[in-house]
Fold this sequence. Notes:
single chain, mainly alpha, membrane, DUF350 domain-containing protein
Amino acid sequence: MQYVISGPSFLSFCAFAGVGLLTLLLAITVVALITPHKEITLIRQGNKAAGIGMAGALIGLALPINSVISNSVSLVDAAIWGAIAAVMQLLAFGVSRAIITRRGPDQIDAGNESAGWFSAGVAIAVGLINSAAMVP
């Protein structure tokens, strides 16, 4: 009897999932460290704008990581392209932040949900474009 899932295929799954999750964790940590506000603290305090923005950042990072894992030829290839996706998301965050704070203090800190949605939208849009472009 032939099984669809073999030992080597399961190990490959574990390796690629591990690289993907590690890349996601590292990237979202960097995003949280470079932002001027403390997203996790704000989320714990019930700041919806911070929660929306962070969710968008996670989705925006996960989309290209998904594409990279689907198309990569090795774990190293997946890790490199995942890091490139993270850098692109950091640039997207910088652009959205510059637009949001153009007229005053940080809108995420202030709980402005529309700023959170805008930030999330930019992150997801950039993630979709990255996902389509990252085909090794």
